């Protein structure tokens, strides 16, 4: 938890001193980004495409949705913290920097939305994402100790989606129930900025700070919601999307490659 709070403070310090660092870059060697880097990150994630669409299987199920006893459409907003680690390699040619990076974060994007009809029929929709990772290419342009960059690649994450339809009749049993979980895969794209801390090392390795935004899409999933034997007839199908936004800050340590370049 200390890392979670320390990294945003370091990022704020970076922004507040950006003008001073930019002026100092004109009189000191610029950072060379070539080589391996590894570090930690923490941040915040929020969902996108939050609508869950449900359709009935048999005529009776379709009629329940048409009568609004079961929802045809609900919105489930999810947000939460995330944190993890990254590793990558960069090549610098003049001012241009390109490389590859992989990362893995633990997330707590978890939320349940409940719909209650006018007749007190309840339907619960739950979405949960416990991890988020990427393997990406990135390309940037070095300006002194700053490296603004764009990035895109493959994304993955563990997810679970579930639906429970509960009767309004005592003892309020679950009459329809379905769930699906697994490893979702898709794509991600975004941008960020790295800043090398001039003269700062950790165990002999140069240190840099980072702020980064990513959009990801792990694809949509259809969850079959069949009737519980003896309680529900037919079934429903609910469509979930697993997409979102990530904003995070990080701390990197550089291994190998030249330390600095005197050219601008």
From TrEMBL:
Residues 1-21 form the signal peptide. The keyword Signal applies. InterPro entries: OMP-like (IPR051692), OMP/PagP_B-barrel (IPR011250). Keywords: Signal. It comes from the Bacteria. The keyword Signal applies. Belongs to the Omp25/RopB family. This is Membrane protein. It comes from Roseiterribacter gracilis.
């Amino acid at each position: 938890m200390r890392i979670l709070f320390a990294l945003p403070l370091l990022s704020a310090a970076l922004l507040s001193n950006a003008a001073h660092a930019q002026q100092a870059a004109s009189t000191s060697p610029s950072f060379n980004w070539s080589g391996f880097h590894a570090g930690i990150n923490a941040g915040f994630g929020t969902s996108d495409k939050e609508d869950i669409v449900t359709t009935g299987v048999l005529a009776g199920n379709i009629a329940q949705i048409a009568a609004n006893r079961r929802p045809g459409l609900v919105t489930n907003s999810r947000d939460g913290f995330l944190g993890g680690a990254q590793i990558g390699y960069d090549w610098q040619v003049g001012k241009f920097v390109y490389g590859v990076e992989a990362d893995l974060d633990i997330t707590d994007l978890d939320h349940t939305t409940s719909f209650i009809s006018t007749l007190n029929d309840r339907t619960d929709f739950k979405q949960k994402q416990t991890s988020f990772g990427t393997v990406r290419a990135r390309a940037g342009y070095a300006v002194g100790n700053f490296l603004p960059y764009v990035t895109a690649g493959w994304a993955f994450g563990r997810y679970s989606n579930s639906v429970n339809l509960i009767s309004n009749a005592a003892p309020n049993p679950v009459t329809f129930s379905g769930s699906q979980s697994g490893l979702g895969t898709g794509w991600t794209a975004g941008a960020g900025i790295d800043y090398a801390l001039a003269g700062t090392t950790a165990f002999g390795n140069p240190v840099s700070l980072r702020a980064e935004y990513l959009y990801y899409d792990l694809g949509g999933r259809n969850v079959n919601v069949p009737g519980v034997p003896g309680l529900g007839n037919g079934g429903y199908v609910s469509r979930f999307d697993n997409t979102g936004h990530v904003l995070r800050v990080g701390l990197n340590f550089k291994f190998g490659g030249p330390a600095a370049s005197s050219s601008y």
